[in-house]
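Bug: token stream looks shifted between consecutive jobs. Job 1:
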Amino acid sequence: MPLSGFSLFVIVVLVLALAIVIAGVKTVPQGYQFTVERFRRYTRTLSPGLNLIVPFVDTIGNRVNVMEQVINVPTQEVITKDNATVSVDGIAFFQVFDAARASYEVAQLDKAILALTMTNIRTVMGSMDLDQLLSHRDAINERLLHVVDAAAAPWGVKVTRIEIRDIVPPTDLVNAMARQMKAEREKRAAILEAEGQRQSEILRAEGQKQAHILEAEGRREAALRDAEARERLAEAEAKATTLLSQSVNEGSPAALNYYIAEKYVAAFQALAQAPNQKVVLLPYEATALLSSLGGISELARAAFEQAPAPKRPGPTGPARSTPGTTPSPFAQPGPDA
């Protein structure tokens, strides 16, 4: 059935309205921002979600990814401060925080950040020695991040991280470094061994010193004890001599006979125990030792009976001997002897 003019007009109006709605309603996905241009001029930025624009007047300029992105830095040759050539590569992370500036302040943002990173890698690493280059990777990353982030800030970009992945020196340089490391470790081992021997000698000397000190203190203590013992022995002998003198003065010469007999026996015993003495010759006066025993027996008898010592004959009478014994040569003779 042919359409009337009015029906055709309504259909055209509906299609035009649908086209206007489609042109004026824009949906932005999460993680992106769209720039809006009016007559090819930037006007505003659309955030994620449902947005309305003026149809047929406003258009979408750039669809900018505002999520954090990564760029691989290809391998490049870097000459260090000490003229060593190394191969370096890395990665860089960045995030767009201003879609308008990232769209209209720089062309080909990824290539610009990559070129900026590679240039600063050569600049930063070229100002360092090889040893610093290999041992201060964190410092290199920090310096690169500071420089590149400051340069990319006008583009509405935040450089969040730059990491150096590999630093590869030449093969001959690696071998030389290995030999140097081996020599350094051998040097440390020799130093530690010498230090250990030195410490051992010091401890041994300290031990010997302490032993000598203790030995000297022991000898000193022994000498003091020996001197004290001799002093006490001398005091005992002096006291014995005093008692002996008092006993003789009181008219009891038996104590004197006992003292002389004791000394005589001790001297005879020392003579018999001499290591170089094979034959012992008894002197004629040895028989006097038997007579001294009489005096000893008298002292013992007097001690047990608790009786006063027997009176000895005066100087006018002859010396009497105990029956059955030989006269003692140590007895005091009378004037008629």
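Job 2, same session, no restart:
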Amino acid sequence: MQKVIFDTDPGVDDAMALLFLHHHPDVDLLGVTTVFGNARIETTTRNALFLKREWKIDAPVARGAGETFIPHRISHEPPTFIHGDDGLGNIGVPDVVDVPLDPRPAHRFIVEIIRENPGEVTIVAVGRMTNLANALKEDPEIVDLVKEIVVMGGAFEVNGNVTPAAEANIHGDPEAADIVFTAEWPVVIVGLDVTLQTVMTRKALADIRDAAGTRAKLLFDLSQFYIKFYEGRVPDGMVVHDSCACAYVVAPQLFETRAGTVRVVCGGIADGMTIQKPDGRTFGPSDWDGLPSQRICTGIDAPAVLQLIHDTIVSVRED
């Protein structure tokens, strides 16, 4: 079993990723930690509690960061044109969800769960890296105790999606991302280089709805606003960014990776840009020297990943 903490900012594609983790037989979901991003922290936390309730998820939810690692850094308004005003496709999520929160802030939850399960916890981080950076600040020794960090974020050999240089999760808190990528723990970055190739069609999503019952009906409904955003950007359907990171956890053989030190540009017109110095390449002295080698995804078997998502979600039917 893969013991997983899901660090997320729900978010439509986050919802699909959460349902994937909840259903996959090889995943033991230890907790869900929220961060601001696709919506404000109050909304992403409420959405996580809503999905926990609707999908009968046992894992606790801990509320995380509502601002950047460096306080008061300039940040942008949530992308309501992508995820809707409620963060879940304007399906009418109630303002209050009567589900208790874990009393710990997300960064402390992460630290304590890692320490309770040394060498066993994988963190799947599909929002801004703020909670992870805060955890490292509180307890730097966790780098020796975590199994792996799998991040959905970044863009290396393709353009970003919020600026030509930067992907949204990294652009939202570049300093936090640079701290996470340069820490002495193993990181795999599943970025736009591969996620943009992984498009779930309308028909494929409808097939999941028809095969998996009420949980998938909710997933289908909340995805419609997101699909509307992707009209004209992909031939049909929607990009399933966050589920790709979850797929890596259980099926890394479906991805090609490249090792090397990763840094994040912090400031200027390339704010949030991710740059890897590949292992074995020789450059002059630089700020990439003496830092750990991390892995970025450079290739993906997109049809197999989409099939894995389908099979996992429909493996548990609830009428």
